Amino acid sequence: MYRGRFAPSPTGNLHAGSLVAALASYLDARSHKGHWLVRIEDIDGPRCIDGAANHILKQLSLCGLHTNDNVVFQSARSSLYQQSLDQLIAKGLAYPCACTRKEIEEQQAALGLSLERHKAAVYPGTCRDGLNGKPARAWRFNVAKWCLLRGSPVVDWHDRRLGPQSQNVSEEVGDFVLKRADGLWAYQLAVVVDDAAQGITHVVRGQDLTDNTARQILLQEALGLSRPQYLHTPLVLGVNGEKLSKQNGAQALDLSSPMAVWMAMQSAASALGLSPLPHPAEPHASLSEALTNWTQEWSQSNMASPLKIEA
Ligand SMILES: [Zn+2]
After folding, report:
1. Parallel, antiparallel, or unpaired for β 177-179 and 202-206?
2. What backbone torsions phi and psi does residue 277 show, to the nearest 5 degrees?
3. Beta-carbon neighbour count of residue 132 at 10 Å?
């Protein structure tokens, strides 16, 4: 049984870009006659905005994107994440780290590694063999050790739109954080645990998240969880050519009238390469018809074509 999800962070309202990802995951679920779930990714409490989660749910409902199940909030699932961290610790695949961000940059410089602009530092594994009496700050996944056990440092995976992908997580990311120094759960662990707990078979999300997939696959393997199929949707660019995001002040979606909703949905559909539909006399009634048409079109498009099974 197909189970897909849309998983927004309530750090702001839906914008044109997140509506594209929502619509894609919804159409993919419907075209596979599956379930479409909504998960609010509110683990990063300090970055979440009061009321945003409810607003997002209202926006989805205005757009006719109705979930088949109860909405799940990550902030209520801490004990699940702890269980998985405990499993990794028991398997010797997670370890405490005492380094500050500044120390990691210094360790990198000492190793002669240059830090690319806008790129997170590759953690050089300083605390892998112990903390030398320093207090633990964060918990990290032992990528190097897991890659030895799985027999390859390279994660190969298939994206339904982008094709074959591959990443050497050890070299490009290093031992990544599972639980942060401020006590918050890291995105990678929470997503993997929740996708498994919710029985997600297909992940459809924005292309900006492509880069996280290899890390998530390593965690799935180490925790003995199955790997969903992945599809990363095209990004919507703003007038300045940059990806639309809450951070760069993407304009709020105008969903103030049935016609405004219709227009917003038309542009989301066209970003996915689906046919625009003529302006209806009754936009509200026509929205569900449009979703049915797009579902049909989606099932005939490449993105919904028979999926390759991972080796
Ligand atoms: Zn460290």
Report:
1. unpaired
2. -115, 150
3. 8
% of the chain beyond a pLDDT of 70:
89
Average pLDDT of the chain to the nearest whole number = 89
CA of 68 to the centre of ligand 1 (A): 42
Same domain, 161 and 230: no
Q: What is the pTM of this model?
A: 0.90
Q: Within a 10 A sphere around the Cβ of 263, how many other Cβ atoms?
A: 16
Q: Write phi, then psi, for 152 (nearest 5 degrees).
A: -160, 140
CB–CB of 46/78 below 8 Å? no
96 CA → ligand 1 middle, Å:
7
Residue 219 three-state SS = helix
Residues 14, 253 contacting (CB under 8 angstroms): yes
Domain of 39?
3-76+199-208+222-304
Q: How far is the CA of 42 from the centre of ligand 1 (A)?
A: 26
Dihedral sign computed on CA atoms, order 35, 11, 263, 302: negative
For residue 216, what are its two tokens?
A: 């998530």
Task: For residue range 223-265, list pLDDT tens digits in order.
Answer: 999 999 999 998 876 666 666 555 555 567 899 999 999 999 9
Distance CA 311, CA 175 (A): 25
The total number of structural domains in the chain stands at 2
Distance (Å) from CA 135 to ligand 1 centroid: 10
Output the CA angle 57-2-73, nearest 5 degrees.
Answer: 30
Instruction: Give the position of tokens 């539909």.
Output: 277
Q: Is residue 194 part of a domain?
A: no
Question: Do 84 and 61 sit in the same domain of this protein?
Answer: no
